[in-house]
Every structure is written in structure tokens, then in C-alpha cells.
Amino acid sequence: MSKQKKTENNKQKLTQSKSTKKKLSKIEELELKGQEYLQGWKRAQADYQNLKKESLAEKASLSHYIKAEVLRDLFPVLNNYKLATEHIPEEMRKEAWVQGFIHLQAQFDKFFTDLGVEKISVEGKEFDVATMEAVEQRESDEHGSNIVIQELRPGYKLGDEVIYPAQVVVAK
Q1: Residue 14: is its pLDDT beyond 60?
Q2: Residues 143, 168: Cα–Cα separation, whole Å
Q3: Which end of the chain is more exposed for a tag (fewer CB within 10 A), N or C?
Q4: CATH code of the domain containing 140
Q5: Is residue 7 part of a domain?
Q6: What percent of the chain has pLDDT over 90?
């Protein structure tokens, strides 16, 4: 091969390697950009999933709060209803309309149970400030000090939250 042809071949190879390097660096640059976009998309996806979780938690919390507030307003009505049915004379308890009222009480109880409301058990237990309100203290030979003698008004919990404390009489 002549010297001139060798020089031309070398120039061609050099030109080809420069364009190949440009192509490689362009490909690498595009790959880097693609990786950057992929990472951004993954972060956005994770942010979206976190937002969904937070939104669901907020909805559940708001739902619980609203339910508790409605129940707090409803319990005094329910307690008065129970007191009224307890004072129906015995001779009238067999009448159909009285049986209807008593049946309504059972429906109320089922409704509250379905909502997750639990009655707080208090009689014979030690007084607990978190679940009870002491309305009165009495001397008692049968009970020790600070033991609930009588429940005047039932208390209720929704899950772990006391939404309506029991009113009680406590032994001195």
C-alpha cells in the first residue's frame, strides 16, 4: 500500500472514531437522561402512594370523629328512652304498643353494636377517672373505698376511645 493510501485510511479511521465517540457520548447522555426521568417518575409514584395512604387515614379519622360526635349527641336521648321504658308499670308491659317500644330498645342496642360501640362495665369495679364520672360518694360496709356502688348512667366506648363516660356512685 502506498503511503498516501495509509494516511487516508488513518484519517478515515480517526474521523470514524471521533463520530463513534460522539455517538457513544450522545447515547450515554440519553441513557443518563432516561435514568434521571425514571428516578423522577419513581419518586412521583412513591409520593402519590404516600398521599393516598395519608388521605385514607385522614378520611378514617374524620369518619371516626363524626361518628363519635353524633353518638355523643344521641346517648342522652337513648338514656332518657331507657329510663322511660323502665318506668312503664308492670301491668302495662304486655300491651302491644309497650312491646313495640321495648323492641325499639333492642334495635338501638344492635345499631350501636354494629357501629362498634361498647358499654363500659363499671359496677363493682374500682373508680376510673378515664371512663367514669363520680356523681356521689357514699359510705358502704359491703364495698371497699373507691369502688363503684351504683351506675347512674351508662358509659360507652367507640373502639378504645371513651365517648360517653359512665356516671357512678363511689364508696368512701
Answers
A1: no
A2: 14
A3: N
A4: 2.30.22.10
A5: no
A6: 50
Q: Which of 114, 117, 126, 108 is nearest to 160 (CA)?
A: 117
DSSP 165: P
CA pseudo-torsion sign 90, 93, 95, 98:
positive
Residue 13 three-state SS: helix
Three-state SS annotation for the chain: CCHHHHHHHHHHHHHHHHHHHHHHHHHHHHHHHHHHHHHHHHHHHHHHHHHHHHHHHHHHHHHHHHHHHHHHHHHHHHHHHHHHHHCCCHHHCCCHHHHHHHHHHHHHHHHHHHHCEEEECCCCCECCCCCEEEEEEECCCCCCCCEEEEEEECEEEECCEEEECEEEEEEC
State residue 142's pLDDT score.
84
User: What are the tens digits of pLDDT across the range 100-127?
Assistant: 988 888 898 899 999 999 999 998 899 9
Which residues pair with residue 98 across a beta bridge? none
User: Integer distance in angstroms from the first to the last C-alpha of the chain?
Assistant: 120
Asked whether residue 149 is domain-assigned, the answer is yes
pLDDT of residue 2: 61
Decide if 170 is inside a domain: yes
How many domains would you assign to the chain? 1
